[in-house]
Amino acid sequence: MERRALPTEEKESFRWLKGYRLAQTVSQQCPQTQIVNVADREADMYDIFLEAQSESGSDPADFVIRSKEDRCTNERVPPSEHGTGYAVYRKARDEVRDSPVRVRQTVALPQTPKRRARQAELEVRARAVTLRHPKHRPDLADVDCQIVYSKEINGPNDGTDVEWWLITSLPVDSVEDIERVINYYKTRWTIEVYFRVLKTGCKVEDIQLETTARVENCLAFYQIIAWRVLCLTHLHREQPSLPCTAVFQTCEWQSVWRVTTQQDLPDKPPLLSEFVPLLASLGGYNNRRSEAPPGPQPIWIGLRRMADFALAWLSFGPTQSTYV
What we know:
By secondary structure, the protein is of the alpha+beta class. It folds into 2 domains: 2-199, Transposase Inhibitor Protein From Tn5, Chain A, domain 1 (Alpha-Beta Complex); 212-316, Transferase Inhibitor Protein From Tn5, Chain A, domain2 (Orthogonal Bundle), CATH 1.10.740.10. It has helices at residues 2-5, 14-29, 46-54, 79-82, 92-97, 175-201, 212-238, 250-261, 272-281, 296-316, and strands at residues 36-39, 62-66, 72-76, 89-91, 103-109, 118-131, 143-153, 163-168. It has a 6-stranded mixed beta sheet with strand order 1-2-8-7-6-5, with helices on both faces. Strands 3-4 form a two-stranded antiparallel sheet. It starts with a helix and ends in an 8-residue tail after the last helix.
């Protein structure tokens, strides 16, 4: 109760409201671009919903937030149904759960430490609701929003079954609208991985530069590096038949090939399907048959080591490259 009594600005969760306000700022600066703030359950804040509604006349940023709280609607339950003298309001999740299935789809779930990769069959319900203000903040207005509920059917029942309650300001009038909301939320994991590359791989939190301008320039440089790591990770999985020269310079792939295979250079540059595992092996990837494709971490470590090998190759290797 003491934590609830604190002003929003003094709570740790305030950072999520600040993040949404930054999205609002970008939305105002780019009126021709739709800005969508995507977040997980820790960002389930009534303040965000209220702020989005209050800015409805000035190109507000949209949001897709996974719900943590089962909030009340503004519809009262008749006293005859609950038998108490108190005001009882219907729950938003009950309203959505009782609505008809709008979409059935299959999504690919990647492997995580808690589950194996699998194809999940989802039933999706969606409807507009009006959320009642929190009980301890009666001065706030009610807010209108949409809820998309995705539940896995025929799942493994091992605690990893999909159940997403998504609160959004986006429309859910058509199947395409609903699928768009789900797709936006699914991109959250890629965003999480991108920031992990920035923080852990590039160590941007350890930057110690004297001026703000230098920090901003450094961050811009590292953002390009993090993007390349993620791009290479996905290219290897989605376009494995590409020649590695589509991404790497001659001195890069040739030096890595010689170091990792201890063999003569091939007549043709290897494909990404062959070369990326070699690169990732420099970062600890074992390249077993049963192993999943390499993720960003062994790739970013491999890229760091490749830079040194390529420099040595140019300085001390063959005087002429076979491929340009």
